[in-house]
Amino acid sequence: MTNIRDLGTLHGDVLLFGGAYSNAQALDALIAAAGDHGIAPSQCIFTGDVVAYGADALGCATRLAAFGCPAIRGNCEQQLLDGADDCGCGFGEGTACDVASKTWYTHAAAQIGPQAAALWAETPDWLTFTHAGKRYAVIHGGAHAVAKFIWPSDDDTVFMAEIERVEARTGKVDGVIAGHSGIAFERALPARVWINAGVIGMPPHDGRSATRYAILSDDGVRFHTLHYAYEAAAQAMEAAGLTQGYEVGLRTGIWPSEDVFPAQLRR
Q1: pTM reported for the whole predicted model
Q2: Helix, strand or coil for residue 14?
Q3: Of the candidates 123, 133, 25, which has an alpha carbon nearest to the alpha carbon of residue 74?
């Protein structure tokens, strides 16, 4: 059963972000950016995966909780809650992503331990809210699979099928806000919109160290770059022994593997 929490009607700008990925430097920068925009924590929405590749899983989890913004569980939170052995991303056995995930997930699990329940037991799976006369649902990956990758290159039928599955549980929505894939984008659909806010903890494979977040205003969504102390984040990963390539990705802006990408998005 999907746990859905309704936030009611939100007024003014709403900051959307996801994938802190145990990157404390990026999360600190995002919290500072919200303040610079004059957006209160109650108007910031997190799309899940507070922990992943980086060095500071527990620090990010506690920082996000202290920030106090509405949030949903990503697959990483759910797997740690369940005491699972991996992140649940569904990486192909033996692929670069699969091999690397075993190291960072073990690191995150060791930091979080039994605190997972205190951190996320009450965190919903989805959120709903109304803004500027439109109703939105916030999910992590896909409607039926929390770790489903949905890409900007996917056909409209993929998005519409997911929206139909969402609406079967939420009622009609004008848009879906998601995360997980790591790429920020907006897809206009028939009478609907799909917004992926991107992630703050890892660059979007574009050759730049800056990451992404989004701001939903009355006239639509805009994407913003997040500049943060990426070198400090990379050095923290190295000090923790997390050297599977993601620490290099923070510096270069290029993911260490394209295993999960569809052919259209590979370099």
Answers
A1: 0.95
A2: strand
A3: 123
